[in-house]
Amino acid sequence: MKKRKITADDLLKIKFVRSVVLSPNESRIMFTVEVASKDKKDYHSHIYMVNTDGGDFRQYTFGDVKDSSPVFSPDGRWIVFISKRGDKKGIYKMRTSGGEAKLLMGDDGSYSNISVSPDSKKILCVFTKADKVPKDKHGKKEEPVFRHITRLFYKLDNSGFLSEDRGHVYIYDMEAGKGNKITKGRNGERDPIWLGNGRNIAYVANVQRDPDMEAMKDDIFVVSANGGKPRKLKKPEGPVEAISASPDGKEIAFIGNDKPQGAWGVENEHIWKISVQGGKAVDLIPKLDRMTMDLTISDTAEVHWAQAPTWSANGKEIYFQVSENGATRLYKVKSSGRGLSRVIGGKLHVTAFSLAGRKRYIVSTISGWTAPAEIFISDTSGDSKPKRLTRLNDKLFKDLYIQKPEEVIVRGHDNYPIHAWILKPPGFSPKRKYPSILQVHGGPTVQYGHTFFHEMNFLAANGYVVYYGNPRGGQGYGRKHAEIIINNWGSLDYEDCMSLAHHMAAQKYIDKKRMGVTGGSYGGYMTNWIISHTDFFKAAVTQRSVTNFISFFGSSDFGFDFDREIKGSPWKNLDSWWEMSPIKHVAKIKTPLLIIHSEQDLRCPIEQAEQLFISLKKLKRKVEMVRFPGEPHGLSRCGRPDRRMARLKWILKWFDRYLKAKK
Question: Which of 396, 429, 463 is at the close of a domain?
């Protein structure tokens, strides 16, 4: 059967596997699947189950709902999950055997970090109370007369204005749904966990006098499950990404570092251990020059995040993700700090994992070059290859022409090795000359890698050689690789991008006169920087980009924290903030440019795009702008389905206009 080329519309046909959880008796695997709605204007997500032997595959929830973060009760009788059904978001429970879901609590606000107590009688979570919203006489919500802002950190991309309540720990009765507020810190708390038999809990909080000014100084606290005065554990100053408790509840493992002043995403986040009774926190893997979280990006996976480390049943080992050399793999280390080893390796992307009960098995969601994430199972020894249990997208992908990219190492101008991939069009012939597109990733402290990327395949399917790599400034290749561009964006990162471009231009199958460049976020910044420093490319598309660091400092949701990346505030180090801004060099831009930006982008606000667009129009350059109403920074990953599809079509339309040979 002849396969067809992948289209923009196929993005909306993909079933996106999200969270995965192994049942306490290790017989069932629960996971969520997200799909685009029929009208292409929203997403629905549902809970599924499959046996660990691959049998009895079933969908548990249905309808126009958004079910997420499911967990099992330790006795195996119940499933507890967060769901948005209608206008309200609450915590629901249903029997593991299936049946009707029951709403346990659904106050006006949001719930997160849910877990069930060891005796299966209580639910631990974080609840963030929503601010009161004025309503008209018909009960319709209205905008307030004014907003009184007192905090530095008052808005967040994809969330909007933050509520006065920053989230507190609650414990609810599993049967009645009634609960108590356990913590009352003025700055909020997060990531609560049960300790041992459930009489105590631990959580993370930033209790600095001004947590917005010292955002990287988190602490871990222990408190009775009945409430009371919390006890702070002694640990080095630094961020805490996620925590988990040993089986006996006597120790806590956490992801973090001891460099609170370091630039974001540069300092390695390691696995640390600390005793609940007190004592010194210990970095269990001090020599590992990598990050212990998933930093491999894709348009079919959720934004990068830190999954809590998981203890073995006997408490002697701890499992965690590591981003390295274009892959996200699973590792384990002995809780004594010895015996670091890889459990799931290879050229793949482990997006999530789960262990439970006796911890004989590891279940994980794994993506590769040719398919989005599916459910896999393996044993904890690390000796067996993960076995695939689900084939949710096989029906779609069996008809599509999808190929593995060619993996290469390109030498930079200073002979530095740049890891990269080349994706060629269907029916590729080395005797032909092809137009090409350089893709630059965002971050910058993330990595492209061994994972499925719909956008890359879509552009390749339309006749382009698509190439992408990991220039210096990103993650996955050690701290020195990441830190080299601190206070120096547009230096070696630019040189590495151009080394990739020159490498491709030297290939006989590349048409040097039809080369394009694109990227989003930091990749958009680098696109702007490239075309303001060279006329090498014949067309460019910049997306959700930074153009002016000086205005970005005050308009971005946490641009104020960028003085750790660009040393000193704008009034102390104005030259750096301005010199690294592409808008300073805008007069040199002659490359036809399409600007794509979301109107509700709070990370790189729309004013960044407007400055670039107006400047280029005044300079009478070839420039157009496409704005997406209501969308956040992550349009390509989480935007409304129809808008994600429109974005892809605009990118293709622009490159076709300038890079395809005229008939």
Answer: 396
Strands (DSSP E) contained in 357-476 are: 361-368, 371-379, 387-388, 406-411, 417-423, 434-440, 465-469
CB 620 within 8 A of CB 653: no
Q: Which two tokens stand for residue 12?
A: 């909306």
Q: Which residue has the tokens 């126009």?
A: 64
- Total residue count of the chain as it appears in this document: 663
- The model's pTM: 0.97
Residue 518 reports pLDDT greater than 70: yes
Does the structure show a pLDDT above 60 at 29? yes
- Cite the beta strand spans of 521-635 per DSSP E: 539-543, 593-598, 623-628
pLDDT above 60 (res 464): yes
> How many whole angstroms from its chain centre is CA 509?
35
Q: What's the rounded Cα separation, in Å, for the pair 368 and 451?
A: 4
E strand intervals along 52-199:
58-59, 66-72, 78-85, 88-95, 102-105, 109-116, 122-129, 155-156, 160-161, 168-173, 179-181, 190-195
Q: What is the mean pLDDT of residues 423-448?
A: 97
Residue 662 is predicted with a pLDDT of 63
Please give the pLDDT value at position 663: 45
User: pLDDT above 90 covers what percent of the chain?
Assistant: 91
Q: Are residues 410 and 548 in the same domain?
A: yes
CATH number of domain containing 615? 3.40.50.1820
Q: How far is CA 636 from CA 155, 298, 552, 628, in A?
A: 21, 9, 21, 11
- DSSP secondary structure letter of residue 585: G
Q: What are phi and psi of 494, to 5 degrees?
A: -65, -45
Q: Which two tokens stand for residue 430?
A: 């080395």
One domain for residues 390 and 413: no
Least confident of 82-96, 186-200, 317-331, 606-620: 82-96
Residue 620 above 70 pLDDT? Answer: yes
Give yes or no: residues 414 and 327 share one domain: no
What is the per-residue pLDDT across 311-331, written as a single tens digit (0 to 9) for each? Answer: 999 999 999 999 999 999 999
Residue 621, exposed/middle/buried by CB under 10 A (0-12, 13-18, 19+)? middle
Same domain for 443 and 545? yes
Q: Residue 560 is part of which domain span?
A: 403-659
CA-based nearest residue to 463, from 503, 514, 419: 514
Answer yes or no: are the C-beta atoms of 527 and 540 closer than 8 Å: yes
For residue 398, with 0-12 CB atoms within 10 Å meaning exposed, 13-18 middle and 19 or more buried, which class applies? exposed
* Residue 8: HSE in the Cβ half-sphere, 13 Å Cα cutoff: 16
Find out whether 655 and 516 touch, Cβ atoms under 8 Å. yes
Q: Distance between CA atoms of 460 and 8, rounded to whole angstroms? A: 12
**CA distances to 170, 242, 480, 483 from 289, in Å:** 37, 19, 9, 12
Which of 353, 374, 396 lies at the terminal end of a domain, its last residue?
Answer: 396
Dist. CA 453–CA 457, nearest whole Å: 7
- List of residues 6+ apart from 133 with CB closer than 8 A: 141, 142, 144
CA distance 563 to 85: 41
Closest CA to 21 of 12, 13, 30: 30
Which element (helix H / strand E) includes 33? strand 28-36
Read off the amino acid at residue 385. Answer: K
Domains identified in the chain, total number: 2
Cα distance between residue 204 and residue 225, in whole Å: 15
* 30, 228, 244, 350 from 330: Cα distances, Å: 20, 38, 17, 7
Question: CA gyration radius for the chain?
Answer: 25
Query: Could you give the CA distance from residue 245 to residue 167 in angstroms, rounded to a whole number?
Result: 21
